[in-house]
Design a protein that fits this description.
protein biosynthesis; Rossmann fold; 3 domains; five-stranded parallel beta sheet; Four Helix Bundle (Hemerythrin (Met), subunit A); 13 strands; NagB/RpiA_transferase-like; four-stranded antiparallel beta sheet; 13% strand; alpha/beta
């Protein structure tokens, strides 16, 4: 780097969209624009500005690589009168050596997409389409997307089809690693659809049709599960009772709405559900359904528990031991309810 470039290293002003080295004649003086930076003034003081040089040859290499070498002869050593500094031949030689003579900018070949990448994009796109329905749980959206993978598959063997399903399932689980219900829905779908080895010995078209049938059936069962739980769970809501809910659950919301539609008179106390305020969202939905709601702090559960008749939770996941995985605060709320002999119920679909 020459002394002039070093001296004014921090005086350059970025120019948006300036990528090529060019030379402009103005009043018999040369003005130059170098990749990414613009001179503050024409050489020899034209337009009453100052002249700055950039950190060549690195920047000049980028410019020459874009424009080619046809204008290099214009870069003759010239005196910058304002600073009495010279653009030296050595500086130009370094820049010229950085790019072989005659080399032009070439298009960088794009890496071809693999089949697995296309499948991943398709299943995520299908998942997002189903997920846009606010009434559809995330796990059900994943099940619908996996069922669509079977329909659209171009596989010629059952093993290849199962491989595509496995890749699609892994892609969905990786899309949101924190979602337990999404992961559980994908795993149960794979077990349900591919649960028998007899498919390996069937005609492929017949086996694929059976997989499609199972996938659609599992999707319908999962979609109807919430309504089934609401029908059965409304019996646990007594007249003139007060119910505590923690966080937002579509199943719990459907259950309480069903009870209200069937003439049950009750009130609900919702915790805030911080940090994402899921309790506030739950209270808005219940108020819209005509249910009396009171919103309390998460830390006020023990203070309020004496007024509660029933505690009702949703669940992100159900483990083999019968325990549940739900938003933070569920465990301590259950402990407080247990200490005061308050009944606790969990409403969750079987695919969780």
């Amino acid at each position: 780097m020459n002394s002039l470039a070093k001296k004014h290293k921090y005086n350059h002003r970025p120019v948006v969209g300036m990528k090529a080295l060019s030379f402009i004649k103005s009043s018999s003086h040369k003005r130059f624009l170098v990749s990414g930076f613009q001179t503050s003034m024409d050489i020899d003081g034209v337009n009453d500005r100052k002249a700055y040089l950039t950190d060549a040859p690195t920047v000049l290499h980028e410019a020459l690589y874009t424009k080619g070498m046809e204008d290099l002869h214009l870069l003759q050593p010239q005196i910058c009168n304002y600073y009495s500094e010279t653009v030296t031949p050595d500086w130009l030689a370094q820049a010229k050596a950085a790019v072989p003579h005659g080399q032009q900018q070439q298009n960088v070949p794009t890496t071809p997409k693999h089949k697995e990448e296309d499948e991943t994009f398709q299943v995520i796109e299908e998942f997002n389409k189903w997920r846009s329905d606010p009434e559809l749980a995330e796990a059900v959206a994943a099940i619908k997307a996996l069922a669509a993978v079977i329909k659209r598959s171009q596989a010629n063997t059952m093993m290849e089809l199962e491989h595509e399903l496995t890749n699609a399932s892994d892609s969905l689980k990786a899309w949101n690693e924190m979602s337990i219900s999404l992961s559980a829905g994908c795993d149960l779908f794979m077990r349900y659809v591919t649960r028998t080895n007899a498919l390996e010995y069937e005609d492929f078209s017949a086996g694929k049709s059976r997989l499609i049938e199972r996938g659609e059936r599992f999707g319908e069962i999962s979609f109807k599960a919430r309504k089934t739980i609401a029908m059965l769970g409304q019996d646990f809501v007594r007249d003139c009772s007060t119910i505590l809910v923690h966080g937002f659950s579509r199943v719990v919301l459907a259950l309480l709405k069903m009870a209200a539609l069937n003439g049950k008179h009750f009130s609900v106390i919702c915790t805030e559900g911080r940090p994402d305020n899921t309790g506030i969202e739950m209270s808005k939905e219940l108020i819209a359904a005509g249910v009396p709601v009171k919103l309390i702090l998460d830390s006020a559960v023990a203070y309020t528990m004496e007024k509660i008749d029933t505690v009702l939770f949703g669940a992100d996941g159900v483990v083999e031991s019968g325990g549940i995985i739900n938003m933070i605060g569920t465990y301590q709320t259950a402990l407080v309810a247990h200490s005061m002999n308050k009944p606790v119920y969990v409403a969750a679909e079987s695919f969780k």
